[in-house]
Amino acid sequence: xxxxxxxxxxxxxxxxxxxxxxxxxxxxxxxxxxxxxxxxxxxxxxxxxxxxxxxxxxxxxxxxxxxxxxxxxxxxxxxxxxxxxxxxxxxxxxxxxxxxxxxxxxxxxxxxxxxxxxxxxxxxxxxxxxxxxxxxxxxxxxxxxxxxxxxxxxxxxxxxxxxxxxxxxxxxxxxxxxxxxxxxxxxxxxxxxxxxxxxxxxxxxxxxxxxxxxxxxxxxxxxxxxxxxxxxxxxxxxxxxxxxxxxxxxxxxxxxxxxxxxxxxxxxxxxxxxxxxxxxxxxxxxxxxxxxxxxx
Length: 296
Hints:
By secondary structure, this protein is of the alpha/beta class.
C-alpha cells in the first residue's frame, strides 16, 4: 500500500499513525451532546458529527457556537432506526420521494431507503441537511454517513457532491483501507467499489487508511476493547467511530444498546485511555486540518 499523500500535507511522515476519534450521532439525544462536550474537554476525542434531522440538533448547534474550536461535521442521515423515537426528513413531506415509511418517518433500515428513495430525493435531503447545519452557525469540518446508507452505490454521488460543493472532506476510505468489514461492506461490494475509490484517489480526494468502530453489542471492558483497536491502527489516517453518551432516562428509553453507549463514554473518559494514546505514539487529529488542506 502506498503512503497516504495526506500525511505529508498535514506535516507528518509517511510512517506515522494518525487517528480521528469520532463521535457519531451528536444531537440524536441530549446524552450525546453532554458526552461530546465532556470528552472534548477531556481530550480523548477529536471530531464528531451532528444529525440535523433530530430533535436535539439545536442544542448541539448551541454547544458548537459556544465552543467554536470543536470539530463537528454533518452526519448525513437517511434513517430513523429506533422503535418509539423517530424523526423525518427536513427537505420534504412528499410520500412520493420515497424517503419516508408508512408512519411518515425516515426508514428504519438502509435497505428500505435503497429500495424506496429516489436519487433526486436523497440528493435534496442531504443538501438541505448540510444547509441547515451551516445556517445554524456550525463551522462544519466534513460530511459522514449515518448507518452508511448514503455510501450505497445508488447514492454515493449525492454524498460526494454535498461535500465537494462546500469544499469539505467526506469520510471516505481508500480501496486498500483496513476495516471495511466494520462498515458492513463485504468482499463482493468492495470489489465493485474499488475502481471508483481508486479513481477518487487519483483526483486527490482526501481518503482514509482505516475504519474502526467501538462495539454497541455489549458493554464489557470497553477500555480493553479500545486499546486493542487503537493498537491495530495501520500507518496512515484512520477514522475511529464510537457512540458515547452519558447515562440518562431519555437515553435508556430510546436505545436498547444504551449500556454500550455509556460504556463507550466511560472508556474514553478514563485516564487509562488518555495515557495509552500518548504511549502508543498515535497522533490525534480532527477533520478541520484535512478540510484546511483540501481548501488550500
